[in-house]
Amino acid sequence: MKKHHFHQGHPLEVIWSEAAATPFVGLWCHACNRYLEIREYPTQSLVFYVASPLSAATPEAVQANMAAAERYEAEVGKLMAADFPGEQVYAYAPHTSLPNELDDSDPASREAAMAFDFEVLRHCSGLVICGPVISAGMQQEIEFAKENEIPLYRFDGGQIEFM
pLDDT tens across 5-50, in order? Predict the structure, then answer.
């Protein structure tokens, strides 16, 4: 299993950079002086946020959930591109890589990750709910999307439906 460099106790900041050549949301670690994660928003593109479970009882199960998120991200990107022909479409699941930087079991790290996720979601064209289980984190993302009038979609493994 890959050894992680967790940033527990490091001051973290979520940054929205609209003025950049390509606007982005980044999670900046002040102690390491680098971005832990960046999500770019190319002009005239549609970005769909992929929500699926991350937390699990064991590190192996967390890794399995990260792998599932990667599969969802690929499938959602392909299907949404087909649903929006002529558009530049991206799917993004922050939990495919962010858990390599932040320990999901550490409350402060989880809070920083969720703050990043909400800022990413704020700039997305929709939230796609994936998998048969809605975790506590997913429920928070769904509520955030509803509060901010971000369209919700459901991916059942074969198709995506508007909710």
Answer: 578 888 999 999 999 999 999 999 999 999 999 999 998 999 999 9
* Contact status, residue 95 vs residue 52, Cβ threshold 8 Å: yes
Give per-residue pLDDT as tens, 53-105. Answer: 999 999 899 999 999 999 999 999 999 999 999 999 999 999 999 988 988 88
> Are 139 and 133 a contacting pair, CB within 8 Å?
no
For 39, the token pair is: 């999500």
Residue (of 46, 43, 51) closest to 23 by Cα position = 43
Determine contact, residues 120/94, Cβ cutoff 8 Å: yes
Around Cβ 128, how many Cβ atoms within 10 Å? 28
* Amino acid occupying residue 111: E
What pTM value is reported for the model? Answer: 0.92
Tally helices (H) and strands (E) across the chain. 3, 8
Return the bridge partners of 155, or none.
Answer: 130, 160
- Sorted by sequence, the CB contacts under 8 Å of residue 3 that are 6+ apart come out as none
Give the span between the Cα atoms of 158 and 38, in whole angstroms. 29
Distance of CA 91 to the CA centre of its chain: 9
